[in-house]
Each structure stands twice: as C-alpha cells, then as structure tokens.
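ugh ok fine here u go
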Amino acid sequence: MNEGTQQRKVHYVFEKGDREHEIIKVFNDWSEKNSVLSGLRGHGFESKQTTTLLQPADLIAGIVQRCVLRQFNAFPSLDNGLSRTRLKTFERYYSEDGATAAVVSGHDENSCWVANAKSFSFLDGVSKNFFQRHPQQLKKRLKRLPFRPKPKKSA
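structure:
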C-alpha cells in the first residue's frame, strides 16, 4: 500500500486442482463486497500440462526459497518484527553460483520481498474479524463447494 501498487490490475493464474474452490470464493468475496480490489483482480485456472508460463515462477520461487532457507539455517529467525523483509537483506546467502543474483537482479531492491509470519497472522486476523462481523457469510461459505480431497489412486 505504501508503494501505491494495490490499485494496479493483476490477473492470477493457478494450477487446476484441489484448492480451486477456495480461490474462487476469495475472488467472489472481493467482487460481492465491493472491495477496493473489486474489478482489479482476475483469476484463471489451467491444467499442469498447459501452464508452461507458470514454470518460471516455480523456478524463481525455488531459488529464492533456497536463499531464505540458507539464511534460516544459519540464524533461525526471519521475523524482523515487520510483515515482510526485503530479499536484498539476505544477499550474503545468495547462491555461490550466482543463480539467485541472476534471478532477482534489477528487481530485488524495491520489488522482491519475503513474507514473514506476521503477514499470515495479519491475514488470518482479517478473515476472523470479517466472519465475526458477518457470521452469515461463514455459514454460506461452509455450505458451498466444501473441500473434498481426491481419492487416492490404487496401485
């Protein structure tokens, strides 16, 4: 919000699968509640076979995760009291082969962040407060499209 990027249009593409119904609910809630994000967020679902454009995102996430895990193994704390930390903070833990620097080069100063546990606690609190104020929405949410894990395939 401080950077003014919340009002930019964003389209999210997810892999088709088990959690699809939960994601749909979140986007529907944004639209139904006339949120400030209404009309600014879109979404789609693609099968694993057709999501080749998502594969680079998986690669980038894996490279960044390795960097953060190296830091965490050296000093088991990422929480600086803030909701997020600049990736650049972990620069001394970038991979020795230069892969981390190559992936985030030119972006890590202002655009690359690592979400801390405080972010997730905050988001959980937002959901909890919303459902406390609107208990009828929780009942509706629980009725529609309940999560049903896929049955295990027999060998």
